[in-house]
Design goal:
The structure holds two protein chains of two kinds. By secondary structure, chain A is of the alpha+beta class. In chain A, the strands form four sheets. Chain A has a six-stranded mixed beta sheet with strand order 6-7-8-3-9-10, with helices on both faces. The chains are: A alpha+beta, B mainly alpha.
């Protein structure tokens, strides 16, 4: 049992490709940290460096106080669940799970007892004599888990362990993995490309992009205060609507400001400006405004009709009826920002952007009440929760936040006893968020 | 797992333990075979070829098959003939008297005073088994090493293997002879066995085979599980390499079994000869030294020589099966 500390961990391949750059991350004993990012972002490389399967180019890796950079994988006391299970095909389930114990010369009776215990935890008792090929996908996944937990490792690594399961089983196995993790209590590092998996499983979530850490925080904080455009779009489904806009209004603190979004205007209450003093610097300039789909609503279902400046009129393209909600896909005449990379490619001056904004039309998604009568090919008024708008600097893609400190990383929850998502305390320790 | 009650279309359905996939190996085997048949049996009409093309290709194959089988048919037919009939009757049909049994027994008798055929046969078997097994073991180790370890110079070394692949054994035989003369390996069985144990083709085949059949993840998993490299090789990699090993074993044994030039120049003692050199000797004596009674023995000796190889092929065939990795790696 130990804390895993990654300090400026870097991996540069022989061909010069930087897979992971200066990764700072800490996983406490008993904590479940998820590394999430699009494919090819270096998350698996990071995990393999922790496992010892990939050489560390620079940086320090510590288990507890011990630097393990040069410790061979078989001496690191690390268990790993592979994306494709990597079961030993000609060994039975019992032998698969007990393989590591055999390597450590654990006496047979004790080995058998431990294997049976692990199998019981995973519901594999009846399968112990089977070969992997006689198991279903979910059962194979369990064997892979069993192989990892039977040794009571100090560090538990998982590389997209659920990605080969069908959707339903995946949801089921999520809670299973967490249950097993709670039972063994080791520091767990879990890699996935699925933001839903990251949000639902992680005590904390680290968002990686092109090998660079973007943000580490609890799932709720990640969702509510993304540090930059990339995190904002990557976390949440459907993802945040991002538009290029400009901010107009009085500079004195009492006055309201207006967000100009294409031909429409959104009133920004004075409190919002007060909460985020940095916004004042963008008065009269362009910025990126982000609206989560759930902060757009059908006014027919709000108790009071939206005031002027708290709604958008949009052309509805189509409506997805999901039963519990409806997703309204609409277009408005503001330029949409999809990703940081897209943003970077554009010329930066406000005047140019203004022209583009005026000319272009772009789509968005709103999550509205399932009883909403909004239908496709019409025009709809959508209420906007203007207090929950997100703002980003168009030059850097960073969030324009209340203060610089809020974007810093957070410490893990107080103890290993599964802290509720989002309750972790902000602190300067551990990882630092960086711009893209 | 406990029994769970599942509500299905309003009616409770009792569901016992989770449904188990059938486990009896026989049934599985049969089903797998039938599925394989289904995938293989694509009607010719669906190949997208013209009818004439298919017929043409088939005809070519038939001609080639006949061409390949003719010598074997000839040797089977003529091994039943007497010395006189060997020269006087039509080569591709039987002629009375059928003396296969007599020829066969003569082969193992002291036909030319030494009782040598049996000795040669044993020699050949010894060289082939030692050389073949040695070549297979070395190829397994080297191939696994090349495929799954990257060490300094591994690429250059592998290029050397490829280069060696291009050099025919015949070409290195003379240099070998000169070396042997210096270190005293002339007329030593090791002079025959040692070069037979080095098989560049085997190393190459094993490298390629390991690359596709022993996944890196499996080795990684075993390392994390604390297994030593030797244990990984013997316990995990080797069972997965069996089909490849059998291929290399067969190729090397056949190679040694049929090797003529190397034993011809390094052995000068009759009791060390393998079958190839021995039969060559008989053949020469039959033609040049007036020992015409040796002709039928050369023929049946040739037939007996190829029988063990056919048997070996049939025995090893059962190891060429796919699906060893089934269940290990999810696509």
């Amino acid at each position: 049992m130990s804390t895993v500390t990654l300090e400026r961990l870097t991996k540069v391949y022989a061909n010069g490709v930087v897979a992971v750059a200066d990764l700072d991350l800490r996983v406490d004993d008993g904590e479940f940290v998820v590394i999430v990012g699009p494919s090819g972002c270096g998350k698996t490389t990071a995990l393999r460096m922790v496992a010892g399967l990939e050489e560390i180019t620079s940086g320090t890796l510590r288990f507890g106080d011990r630097v393990v950079n040069d410790v061979s994988p078989r001496e690191r006391d690390v268990a790993m669940v592979f994306q494709n299970y990597a079961l030993y095909p000609h060994l039975s389930v019992h032998q698969n799970i007990g393989f590591s114990l055999g390597n450590r010369k654990v006496p047979k009776p004790e080995r058998d007892a431990k294997v049976r215990e692990a199998a019981a935890v995973l519901g594999l008792t009846e399968m112990l004599d089977r070969k992997p090929r006689q198991l279903s996908g979910g059962q194979r996944q369990r064997v892979a888990m069993g192989r990892a937990i039977v040794r009571e490792p100090s560090v538990f690594l998982m590389d997209e362990p659920l990605s080969n399961l069908d959707a339903k089983l995946r949801v089921q196995m999520r809670s299973e993995v967490l249950r097993v993790h709670r039972k063994i209590g080791a520091a767990a590092l879990y890699v996935t490309h699925d933001q839903t998996e990251a949000m639902t499983m992680g005590d904390r979530v680290a968002v990686l992009r092109d090998g660079v850490l973007q943000q580490v925080s609890g799932p709720r904080e990640l969702y509510e205060t993304p540090t930059n455009v990339f995190v904002a779009t990557f976390i949440g489904s459907p993802s945040m609507n991002l538009y290029e806009a400009s901010l107009e209004g009085s500079t004195d603190a009492s006055g309201d400001a207006t967000v100009v979004l294409g031909s429409q205007r959104l009133a920004l209450p004075a409190e919002v400006l007060k909460q985020r003093p940095q916004l004042a610097a963008f008065l009269g300039r362009g910025l990126i405004v982000g609206i989560r789909p759930e902060h757009l609503s059908d006014p027919a279902f709000s108790p009071v009709p939206p005031e002027a400046g708290h709604s958008l009129t949009a052309d509805v393209d189509y409506v997805e009826v999901l039963g519990s909600e409806q997703l309204v896909h609409f277009t408005i005449d503001a330029r949409r920002v999809r990703e940081e990379s897209e943003l970077r490619e554009q010329p930066g001056t406000a005047a140019e952007q203004g022209e583009i904004v005026a000319a272009s039309v772009s789509e968005g998604v709103a999550r509205v009440d399932p009883r909403s009568a909004i239908r496709a090919h019409g025009r709809a008024v959508l209420g906007v929760d203007t207090e929950r708008l997100h703002f980003f600097d168009p030059d850097t893609g960073d969030a324009i936040s209340s203060s610089g400190a809020a974007t810093a990383a957070v410490l893990p929850g107080a103890s290993g006893a599964a802290p509720a998502p989002g309750t972790s305390e902000p602190s300067g320790a551990g990882a630092s968020a960086s711009s893209g | 797992m406990n029994a769970v009650t599942v509500i299905r279309s309003g009616r409770p359905v009792e569901q016992a333990a989770p449904p188990l996939p059938p486990a009896e190996p026989q049934r599985r085997g049969r089903r797998r075979r039938s599925r394989a048949d289904e995938t293989e049996d694509i009607p010719v009409a669906y190949y997208g070829l013209r009818r004439g093309t298919v017929a043409g290709i088939t005809a070519c194959c038939v001609v080639f098959a006949i061409f390949t089988l003719i010598p074997i048919v000839w040797i089977i037919i003529n091994s039943t003939k007497t010395q006189a009939n060997l020269f006087e009757t039509f080569g591709f049909w039987f002629a009375a008297p059928i003396v296969l049994g007599r020829n066969f027994s003569l082969l193992f008798q002291n036909v030319d005073g030494y009782g040598t055929y049996f000795q040669w046969f044993a020699n050949t078997a010894l060289y082939a088994i030692l050389g073949g097994c040695g070549a297979t073991a070395l190829a397994a180790l080297a191939g696994y090493g090349f495929a799954r370890f990257s060490f300094r110079g591994s690429k250059v070394l592998f290029y050397f293997v490829i280069a060696a692949l291009l050099v025919p054994v015949t070409a290195i035989t003379l240099p070998l002879y000169l070396t042997y003369a210096k270190i005293g390996l002339i007329n030593s069985i090791w002079g025959m066995i040692l070069p037979s144990m080095v098989s560049p083709v085997g190393v190459y085949l094993m490298k390629v085979f390991v690359e596709v059949s022993v996944p890196r993840e499996l080795i990684d998993a075993a390392r994390l599980d604390g297994a030593s490299e030797l244990r990984i090789f013997f316990r995990l990699a080797l069972p997965l390499m069996v089909p490849g090993l059998m291929t290399v074993l067969l190729l090397s044994i056949v190679g040694v079994w049929n090797n003529y030039f190397l034993p011809l120049i390094i052995f000068s003692q009759n009791q060390l000869y393998p079958l190839t050199v021995g039969l060559g000797l008989w053949s020469q004596r039959a033609q040049n030294s007036g020992n015409a009674e040796l002709f039928p023995l050369v023929v049946i000796g040739g037939l007996v020589t190829i029988i063990p190889l056919i048997a070996l092929f049939l025995v090893l065939q059962r190891y060429w099966r796919s699906g060893l990795l089934l269940g290990s790696i999810a696509n």
